[in-house]
Amino acid sequence: MLCMRHTPPIIQFNKILDSFAKMKHYSTAVSLSHRLELKGIQPDLITLNILINCFCHMGQITFGFSVLAKILKRGYPPDTVTLNTLIKGLCLKGQVKKALHFHDKLLAQGFQLNQVSYATLINGVCKIGDTRAAIKFLRKIDGRLTKPDVVMYNTIIDAMCKYQLVSEAYGLFSEMAVKGISADVVTYNTLIYGFCIVGKLKEAIGLLNEMVLKTINPNVYTYNILVDALCKEGKVKEAKSVLAVMLKACVKPDVITYSTLMDGYFLVYEVKKAQHVFNAMSLMGVTPDVHTYTILINGFCKNKMVDEALNLFKEMHQKNMVPGIVTYSSLIDGLCKSGRISYVWDLIDEMRDRGQPADVITYSSLIDGLCKNGHLDRAIALFNKMKDQEIRPNIFTFTILLDGLCKGGRLKDAQEVFQDLLTKGYHLNVYTYNVMINGHCKQGLLEEALTMLSKMEDNGCIPNAFTFETIIIALFKKDENDKAEKLLRQMIARGLL
């Protein structure tokens, strides 16, 4: 087009630039716009708006404002697309206060903004977690600057539900009805999700029934929220009933629906039913994905069906599916717990080759397996290898290793690891202390165990029943009855007995 004798109008170039922007090739669009100007082809307002959009998505908001300056210099009146894009760009960068200040400046200069502008600002305020400020802003614009719409209310309701402020979210939902703003499927889905995460399933199902009465068609996402919540509560029969309602309403279940139901069956130890759901998926024309296989592999491993898990893992490879870190971690954990450590090293190498190096969870599972199978030196070596690879062990990793060393009669090594924990400033939990106290008691070092109990409380860690019982039993075995009875009275006083 640039080489044609009669250069096409700018509108034709804009179509190409806009296509690149929509495909998220922002830098290409910017580069091509420079070539236009070098050829002496003057951009119009649409060209410059496309450029602002590209700069904003590239995080180069300063260049976006430079284009605004160019628009004003050329005498083009900036339209709402120009202004909304800049507001969105500031919000994407997390510069919400600057976006609000820019809004105030625009109003002072006589510019008119629309519902999209205000929905963008409200979304920005909600994204930084300030739902109160979002409501305050909604009240400020209501009737004075614009008429609030369903998008604005949905944005605030969604943020409130994510912060578990479900009663307040429902209050806004009721306010919408009073103001004559019709709730849509997004509003209901958001509230149903909110009620589910706070455990109010009855209210969530009530909203589903209300949707049907108001002829607002629930979509697959609506049903998936309810299936997930019911499965997590162990109410798989009820979840299956929701699936039946879904099918009756001619809403086709997707891979998430079936995967969630499978997970639910595993939670209540109904392995065969989980397998049945997996097999039924293909018959219903739904293709299992990596997440589906991961759920099944994890479920099999937790139910000590490691061979079945390995077969599924091989099936993933045959289907050219790339397992995720969770898939690997689940299988490694299952293999370690079943004592099949030799298989694990190949998986660790495979993970590295696929660019998914083992993480702290993978290493923790492997250390646990090595400890339980008596390979304590290899467990220590692997623990040190973690640090060499800059994978920071968490308190869970430390506790696994300490437990293995104590049970393996290597208290001195455990004490060194425990000291390392203290030196590095880890926040120790009751389980870590219990492991060390139990280790000292087994070696007959009761004074050290009692000292550790005192230090535990000094560091703000509250002992539980197991802590006291471990020391009391050891004291009685050593005929130190007075000390044992004193601790027993403490247990009673704390309501642990």
Automatic annotation (TrEMBL):
Full protein name: Pentatricopeptide repeat-containing protein, mitochondrial
SUPFAM superfamilies assigned to the protein according to its UniProt record, in alphabetical order: HCP-like (SSF81901)
Domain of life, source organism: Eukaryota
NCBIfam families: PPR (TIGR00756)
Gene3D superfamilies: Tetratricopeptide repeat domain
Gene name of the encoded protein: LOC100814966
Record lineage: Eukaryota, Viridiplantae, Streptophyta, Embryophyta, Tracheophyta
PPR repeats: 44-78, 79-113, 114-148, 149-183, 184-218, 219-253, 254-288, 289-323, 324-358, 359-393, 394-428, 429-463, 464-497
One protein family per Pfam: PPR_1
Entry-linked InterPro entries: PPR_P_subfamily (IPR050872), PPR_rpt (IPR002885), TPR-like_helical_dom_sf (IPR011990)
Record keywords, A-Z: Repeat
Family label: Belongs to the PPR family. P subfamily.
